[in-house]
Amino acid sequence: MLFRSRALVVLDHGERVLLDHGTRVRVTAAGSLALDTGRVWIAAASTIDPLAAEPARLEAGSATLHLRGVRASVSREGDGAALDVLGGEVAWSAGTRQGAVHAGEHGVLQRAAATVSARTLFDDWTGGLADELPAGVTVGGAVGLGSVAARRPDEQGA
Fold first, then answer.
1. Are the C-beta atoms of 80 and 108 separated by less than 8 Å?
2. Is this model's pTM higher than 0.90 or not?
3. What is d(CA 116, CA 101) in angstroms, rounded to the nearest whole number?
């Protein structure tokens, strides 16, 4: 039996990371998240823990993404990343290059080259799970407790 599922991970500083099926991530020694294969949806708050020295980071090959106040889809592309930013902006560095991808833009980031272009439509691969949480709903809770979120295929956008 083959299951095609996704997982939602909430990091210490409140970032929500939705992992698509077949995605591999790991936490590096520096405490950032590394995307080895697949794609993730990230929703990072605009404020971070005052004890944290910098925004959350996601590493995808040669690309390092700095995440604060963003909603973005990131996929591993060769030695870098491709991303669609739906809210906020993602600061990035790849090799000696650096820049930002803003809301409404698509970026392909590699060590040798980076391209950023306008994106008119976003293919919501999350099935609607990338939507902001409804008012009054939280994903916080006691350490060790989890939550499950799901939508039936015919309820996308609900």
1. yes
2. no
3. 7
Q: Are 129 and 18 in contact (CB under 8 A)?
A: yes
d(C-alpha 126, C-alpha 146), whole Å: 19
Distance in angstroms (rounded) separating the CA atoms of residues 139 and 16: 9
Closest CA to 64 of 107, 24, 103: 107
Please spell the DSSP secondary structure of 98-113, one letter per residue.
EEEEETTEEEEE-SS-
**Residue for token pair 């604060």:** 68
* Whole-number Cα distances in Å, 74 to 17, 71, 118, 140, 158: 10, 10, 16, 23, 24
Q: Which two tokens stand for residue 26?
A: 């790991």
* pLDDT tens per residue across span 1-31: 345 678 888 877 778 888 998 899 998 887 7
What secondary structure, in 3-state letters, does 127-140 show?
CCCCCCCCCCCCCC
CB under 8 Å, gap of 24 or more: what pairs does 134-141 form?
139/8, 139/10, 139/16, 140/10, 140/14
